[in-house]
Amino acid sequence: MALTVKIASIIGARPQFIKAAVVSRALARQPGLDEVLVHTGQHYDFNMSQQFFDELDIPRPDHHLGVGSGSHGEQTARMLTGIEQVLLQERPRVVLLYGDTNSTAAGALAAAKLNLPIAHVEAGLRSFNRRMPEEINRIVADHLSDLLFAPTSAARDQLLREGMPAERIVTCGDVMFDAALQHARRAGERSRIIETLALTRGRYALVTLHRAENTDQPARLRAVVDGLRRVAADLPVVWPVHPRTRAAAHKQGIELPAADPGFLAIEPVGYLDMILLEQSAAVIATDSGGVQKEAFFHGVPCVTLRDETEWVELVEAGCNRLCPPVSADAVRQGILEAVGTTVPATRFYGEGRAAEIIADELRTRYANPDGTGSAEARCAS
Ligand code: UD1
Ligand code: UDP
Questions:
Q1: Is 350 near ligand 1, meaning CB less than 6 Å away?
Q2: Is the pLDDT assigned to residue 350 strictly greater than 70?
Q3: What is the spatial distance between Cα 148 and Cα 15, in angstroms, rounded to a whole number?
Q4: Do residues 223 and 325 touch, judged by C-beta distance below 8 A?
Q5: Given pLDDT bands bounded at 50, 70 and 90, which one contains residue 1?
């Protein structure tokens, strides 16, 4: 007889709310799956957290750990303690993790030490730069996971190279592509951001920035801000500023434009507004993983303000260019040169069914006590 499978999903940061929204919905549609949602509290400002729950109809978390900000050690330690307590109380059949944040790494460690199976969504991504906290987090999560949901074939190949058994890997596509497809129409109906900011469609650059390698190196952050000022002389710039970046600029005495009509440094926006801003931009410049892909989904050229990227297929396809922010001129030139370049319509990220595949695999693999019907058992037979 099939059992009810209790799945504990651990989330905590903005991109995880967006990914979990589509997966939670798919889990709810599968009979026999019961999701327990755990919010670590890593992101906590209204516009970094609750806004996404409201807009995307994400169920209210069953547990909110309220850990907040801190150094990597402090923050991860508080999460580890809180997640362990929740897992001991809930005793889930499997723990579901997303991406590469400290919430992901803490969830992986807490679950592994309790001998609970782990499933990792967005497995196999690598920048090969271990100075990035995300690289450490994703390696820990992948290597402790029993089930690896790879968004692309490149991610799958990387997991195989690292010795992961093939039967643990499911190439399912990218849940962010599902999200973009599911919410594009709603965004068009509901968002008024273009009018509110008095923008002209196709006539502005959209920017986001939050990676430690950019915010915590004053020379790089200054190069970005000065470079954007120079872009703004030719093309208006809209920049929803991540709180990390605002705090870093303040600390480093770098002034962000307040009310310059050609250069809008605004508060973070909701997901529906973000979709509209992305769709209507002439170019997107970012160091975000999610935003690089969304630029591609919406057919907009992208400039990645980093030395490397995990989403290599976009660079190989020529629609994403790496532009390390080493000087204001490099930033200006990189952004303006990308305007008007073409974006191919290749399907790198699946068919928009990643969440459905994930839910189906979790049910098949964990609903039968003897594991029959799982991909593992199917491969063995
Ligand atoms: C985190 C993830 C990163 C992910 C990003 C998504 C880690 C190591 N990093 O980076 O992988 O791409 O989220 O946005 O997990 N802050 C606020 N309000 C908030 C949240 C943060 O003011 O609601 C400020 C605080 O000053 C905090 C800083 O932002 O110290 C950094 O927050 P943190 O969650 O540690 O990392 P992110 O840079 O957001
Ligand atoms: N995003 C948003 N509002 C913003 C900036 C980003 O809704 O002001 C969304 C964006 O569309 C994408 C996700 O947040 O879906 C990306 O998150 P972020 O850049 O914080 O993290 P990363 O993807 O780099 O881990």
A1: no
A2: yes
A3: 18
A4: yes
A5: low
* Catalytic status, residue 63: no
- Residue 2 pLDDT grade (very low, low, confident, very high; cuts 50, 70, 90): low
Of ligand 1's listed atoms, the one at least distance from the Cα of 13 is 13
CB neighbour list of residue 352: distance below 8 Å, 6 or more residues apart: 173, 177, 178, 181, 182
What single string gives the DSSP state of each residue in 129-157?
A: -TTSHHHHHHHHHHHH-SEEEESSHHHHH
Tokens of 381: 């037979």
Domains of the chain: 5-173+353-378 (3.40.50.2000), 181-338 (3.40.50.2000)
pLDDT in tens, 78-123: 999 999 999 999 999 999 999 999 999 999 999 999 999 999 999 9
- What pLDDT is recorded for position 257? 85
Ligand 1 centroid–CA 368 distance in Å is 38
d(CA 246, ligand 2 centre) in Å? 15
Helix or strand (DSSP H, E) at 74:
helix 72-90
**For the segment 37-85, what is each residue's pLDDT rounded down to a tens digit?**
999 999 999 999 999 999 999 999 999 999 999 999 999 999 999 999 9
pLDDT band at 376 (very low <50, low <70, confident <90, very high): very low
Please report which ligand is nearest the Cα atom of 240: 2
Closest ligand 1 atom number to CA of residue 70: 30
Relative to the alpha carbon of 289, which ligand is closest?
2
288 C-alpha to ligand 2 centroid (Å):
7
Which residue has the CA at smallest separation from atom 2 of ligand 1?
Answer: 101
Element (H, E) at 186: helix 175-190
